């Protein structure tokens, strides 16, 4: 054992990427560390990691008493800004951005799982160490989570939803084919008991969060974004059943009625929240409901969407909703509502999740607020602050770094240079 000496730290080499667990003690020297709990940037921090968990943090002065084994691996990030791993509350790892509309029909569930493997790695390399996967065919996301957790493939910690629950003919159904094809989404159910049964089934097959569709959507054929889907009674049944089972609930909702009804029913987050009214924002604030507003994706849909197969009727819907959503985001920020970082990556390319930070700042957040949304904020929404969301003793060593100052220019988070998950280094540029 030796006492920690800064000279040794600064001469250290970086670990090569490895996807298996390793048990060596690691010591990260952070030139600047963003403490998302206090919102402060702290200088010259030392972070000690054992078995993938953070066991000590301090300044150079206070850390010198801590015993460090001689074979500890020293990771020098003294020129960098170190942050907790980012998280995204709304992704679809098994979906590809260039496969929309009728092209999606060509994709089997096994093919979607393979797509998920590719996208999981891209997401992790972009600095996102925890994601909620809000909907996948046939529980492909549950298997992806298992493969990542088993160390078979690199990827973020996942909170998978399995099949999204929705009404017949709604946003979470498959409405692309005529009646004869009998194409029905895996999560379709109508009526309070039928939706409860879907929640139970999702839980049985490994879902860790429940997603349902509470209004029409942009990308679904024949649905209206303003129209509520599911009655209050059905929404309440979904939420009650999920909460009995210890699962959080995320609702897809663009229109004001669906948003407000879902908040009343007790959902934990409202995805999109595009046309939320001032009254809806007040309700969300009062109930502590998180608004997960994907305010970047519109740019991708309107510029690349047509080539990717997005239907003309969907492009038309997007033209009515994209800008309005950003304005409502601004209103929600101003009102002090809980805002999650959710991107809907999968509609646009995975690994570009970080592009949304600059939009959140352009539309009313400070850089630290946007960073908090994606770290400690999301961790609160997911109910995982015990081991994630900030760099703190007792939490997982999910740590990223960038070479600039993201508090001055949040776009630094579009190009993350260093990624560690559970103490294993996956990227070190
Ligand atoms: N999956 C969503 C839907 O189809 C995407 C909405 C994207 N547009 C937006 N402005 N956020 O409804």
General description of the model:
The structure is a single chain. This protein has 429 residues and is an alpha/beta fold. 32% of the residues lie in helices and 22% in strands. The chain is built from twelve helices and 17 strands. It has helices spanning 6-10, 60-63, 109-125, 140-149, 192-204, 232-244, 256-265, 278-287, 297-304, 312-335, 356-362, 367-382; strands spanning 2-3, 26-35, 40-50, 53-59, 67-68, 73-84, 86-91, 128-133, 157-160, 209-213, 248-253, 269-272, 290-292, 339-340, 399-402, 418-421, 424-428. The strands form four sheets. Strands 4-3-2-6-15-16-17 form a seven-stranded mixed β-sheet. The protein is globular, with a radius of gyration of 22 Å. Residues 1-18 have low confidence and may be disordered. Arginine is lined by residues 217-219, 272, 274, 294, 297-298, 318, 321-322, 325, 344, 347.
Instruction: Give the low-confidence spans.
Output: 1-18
Largest sheet: 7 strands, mixed
The radius of gyration over CA amounts to 22 Å
Q: Say which molecules are bound, naming each kind only once.
A: arginine
Structural class, please?
alpha/beta
Cα end-to-end separation: 30 Å
SS summary, helix count: 12
Q: Based on CA inertia axes, which overall geometry fits?
A: globular
- Give the topology string: H per helix, E per strand: EHEEEHEEEHEHEHEHEHEHEHHEHHEEE
User: DSSP strand (E) fraction?
Assistant: 15-25%
Counting copies of identical and different chains, the oligomeric state is single chain
The overall strand count is 17
